[in-house]
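Mods, move this if it's the wrong board.
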Amino acid sequence: MLISVGWYTSIITKQVDTPLIYHCTSGSKKPYTWLQLGTLMLEFFQSKEPFNEVFRRPDVNFATNKLELEYWKTISHWIPAYIADGLSKVMGKKAIMLRAYDKVHRASKTFTFFTKREWTWTDGNCNMLMSKMSDIDRKVYNFNVHDIIWEDYYPNYFRGTKKYILKEDMSDTKLQEARAQQADGAT
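Not the wrong board. C-alpha cells:
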C-alpha cells in the first residue's frame, strides 16, 4: 500500500493542500473478533504446532468483568506459579514463574485499552486509491482486506512469534517431540 500511496501522491501533489490519510483496516469489511483469534490460536498451539517447552498448556479466557478476570488470574496463573516456584526452591532451582506471570499481566494490561474498545475507521481514501490503480497494479500491490484469509495469516504470525520472539527450535524433530509430549499430557 505504501508504494501505491507514494505513486498516487506524486500524481496529485499540486491538487491537494493537506496530506490524505489512508486507513487500511479490516474491521468494517472483514472483521475478526478476539474470540475467533483466541480459538484459532488455541487450535494452532494445542493441535498443530505446540510449544517446545511450556509450563502449562495455553488457554484463552475472555473475562467480562474485573472480578472474573481476577478469579481466572488467581486460578490459572498465581496458584500454579506459587506451586511451581515452591517446588523449584525445594529442588534448589531458580523460581521464575511468579515473575513470568507478572510480566504477562503487565503486558496484557497495556493492551486493555485497545481490546476493550471498538473503533470504526473510514476507508474511503483506500477505496479511492484502489480505484485509481490499474487491474495489474491492484494485483501486484494488493492491499484489499477482503483478500485476507485470517486462517492462513495468523498461523504464520504464530510461527513467527515462536521463532523470533520465543526463540524456539522450529525443526521437525522438535515439533514431533512437542506433539508427543502434549499427547502424553506431559506439558
